[in-house]
Q: What sequence folds into this?
């Protein structure tokens, strides 16, 4: 009896930013080729920041990505502050944590609502979803709007923050604005639960594929790490961020223009599932309860559950944001505090890392004595995940080889989308062909 | 919130792709009307929808390949564009027209929207505009003032 044949050549898979291809060849039940290809022209943002001044670098790097612009800003500020010896106040620290929650909410809500739900509800994209499930999409839009307004309030903009500057904030949200934000976050719980209930009902549609790998993220002792922490692995290691090069080990593969990374194993995963596996005990109580309700238990080795981990992080970010606002407002002198820091540039090197929605983002700058950047290195989360996507595909295809080709294609596309990859965030210009 | 929004979109790290951002920056100093918010939206994805709500009129300035000469400006309604080639969505680079489609599908009340498209001269990693795109910017204040004061329908004729 002859085995299954597959000939998959999916170019530019949809609902993923940038260009990624899936190629599978199988003959008579034997898998001959499985490749996750990234044919995007490489981008050299590091070269663009060399020669720029220390106090504008974070504005430039915030433009690398429209989704992770707060994360790029914060990683950039942390690197610059480390190089310049600038310390930030506890108030700035807490406002920045609030900013990173805003970005996490913006991104996760959109990924779940616009990119994953269409798969689970069997429609091609969010456009038919808006027709078939308008109330669900409206709920997602409401949550997304709130996250945008939170970002606008804290950072001065929905994307590409303006208020975040070296040493502090150019402008603070007022106490009244924070109080109003707290009320709105508190009242959003029914919407979060509506999305959670929908995802819970659809979770059985997620493939049950598992493959144990190494999960890497920031970790710290006193909270679920987003803004600060050491590099940590589910394999048990923990080191300060300054040692990041031995944790990323970038390398080139023939089928991809993007760099791959690995540590001790052949691949690793970063992002919500990695953070959950590493730090789940530090989630807020409601987030822990939601994880339990959704069947997400650490350690979880199913990459498709990354979406569920994102939803759990949504609950965490809402609850933790309310706690942070309470802390900020408990300080009677909140609005009168000096928020910016007068600094003179100095020669040095600084490294900054934060957790952005897709995983660890690292910026590493070297400055000369005039505060001009002479060297830069940015390591984005998606590059850390490419090797893991490849290994997942290699493990998954033999398990599903006897399914109809269309089903195999969908499962592989869903796998890539589960990682929420951002291959390039650089161009989006309109191609216009007018109706005749 | 003011009744009219002029929204520049794009990535200013990618040459003329970011012409909308350069335009917003220039208009902030060169274009004054009490009834206009001028917004540098960057790469807003679906967040764009929330910038449109409760407006009377919106202009979106974006880099657009409509087959014109570099720096050429074309003004059009989203409905005028053939949508077959613009059906995909991604989180980061959500197509402007798809974003507007989603807004309509979920019943958002969108104001009249005009896209001011500027044909790129070069899209590559640089924070500088091409000469042609730079020249196009200087036409925008008068163009937008005319569009607002005389009514857009009288000017646009696709």
A:
């Amino acid at each position: 009896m002859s085995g299954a044949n597959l000939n998959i050549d999916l170019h530019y898979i949809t609902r993923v930013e940038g260009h990624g291809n899936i190629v599978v060849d199988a003959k008579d039940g034997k898998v001959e080729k499985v490749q996750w290809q990234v044919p995007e022209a490489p981008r050299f943002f590091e070269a663009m920041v060399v020669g720029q001044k220390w106090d504008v670098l974070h504005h430039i790097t915030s433009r690398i990505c429209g989704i992770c612009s707060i994360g790029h800003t914060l990683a950039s500020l942390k690197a610059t502050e480390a190089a310049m010896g600038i310390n930030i106040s506890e108030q700035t620290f807490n406002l920045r944590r609030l900013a990173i929650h805003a970005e996490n909410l913006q991104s996760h809500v959109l990924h779940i609502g616009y990119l994953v739900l269409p798969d689970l509800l069997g429609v091609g994209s969010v456009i038919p979803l808006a027709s078939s499930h308008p109330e669900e999409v409206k709920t997602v839009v409401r949550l997304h709007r709130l996250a945008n307004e939170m970002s606008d309030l804290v950072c001065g903009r929905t994307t590409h923050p303006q208020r975040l500057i070296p040493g502090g904030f150019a402008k603070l949200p007022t106490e009244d604005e924070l109080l109003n934000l707290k009320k709105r976050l508190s009242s959003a719980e029914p919407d979060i639960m509506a999305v959670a209930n929908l995802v819970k009902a659809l979770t059985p549609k997620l493939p049950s594929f598992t493959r144990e790998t190494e999960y890497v993220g920031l970790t710290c002792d006193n909270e679920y790490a987003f803004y600060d922490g050491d590099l940590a692995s589910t394999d048990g290691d923990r080191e300060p961020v300054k040692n990041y090069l031995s944790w990323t080990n970038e390398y080139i593969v023939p089928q991809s223009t993007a760099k791959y990374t690995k540590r001790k194993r052949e691949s690793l995963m970063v992002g919500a599932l990695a953070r959950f596996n590493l730090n789940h005990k530090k989630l807020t109580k409601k987030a822990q309860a939601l994880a339990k309700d959704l069947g997400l238990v650490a350690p979880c080795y199913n990459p498709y559950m990354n979406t569920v981990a994102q939803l759990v992080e949504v609950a965490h970010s809402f609850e933790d944001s309310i706690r942070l606002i309470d802390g900020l407002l408990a300080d009677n002198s909140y609005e009168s505090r000096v928020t910016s820091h007068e600094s003179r540039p100095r020669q040095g090197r600084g490294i900054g890392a934060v957790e952005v929605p897709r995983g660890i983002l690292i910026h590493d700058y070297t400055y000369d004595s005039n505060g001009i950047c002479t060297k830069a290195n940015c390591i984005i989360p998606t590059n850390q995940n490419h090797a893991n996507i490849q290994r997942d595909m290699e493990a998954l295809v033999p398990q599903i080889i006897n399914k109809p080709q269309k089903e195999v294609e969908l499962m592989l596309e869903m796998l890539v989308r589960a990682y929420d990859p951002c291959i390039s965030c650089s161009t989006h210009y309109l191609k216009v062909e007018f109706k005749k | 919130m003011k009744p009219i929004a002029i929204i520049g979109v794009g990535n200013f790290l990618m040459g003329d792709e970011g012409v909308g951002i350069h335009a917003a920056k220039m208009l902030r100093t060169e274009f004054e009307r009490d009834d206009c918010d001028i917004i540098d939206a960057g790469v807003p994805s679906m967040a764009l929808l929330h910038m449109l709500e409760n407006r009377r009129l919106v202009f979106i300035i974006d880099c657009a390949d409509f087959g014109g000469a570099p720096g050429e400006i074309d003004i059009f309604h989203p409905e005028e564009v053939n949508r077959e080639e613009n059906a995909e969505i991604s989180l980061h680079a959500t197509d402007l027209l798809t974003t507007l489609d989603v807004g309509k599908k979920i019943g958002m009340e969108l104001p009249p929207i005009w896209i001011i498209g500027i044909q790129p001269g070069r899209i590559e990693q640089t924070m500088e505009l091409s000469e042609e795109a730079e020249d196009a910017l200087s036409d925008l204040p008068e163009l937008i003032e005319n569009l607002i004061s005389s009514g857009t329908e009288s000017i646009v004729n696709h």
Q: What stands out?
A: Residues 85-93 of chain B have pLDDT under 50 and may be disordered.
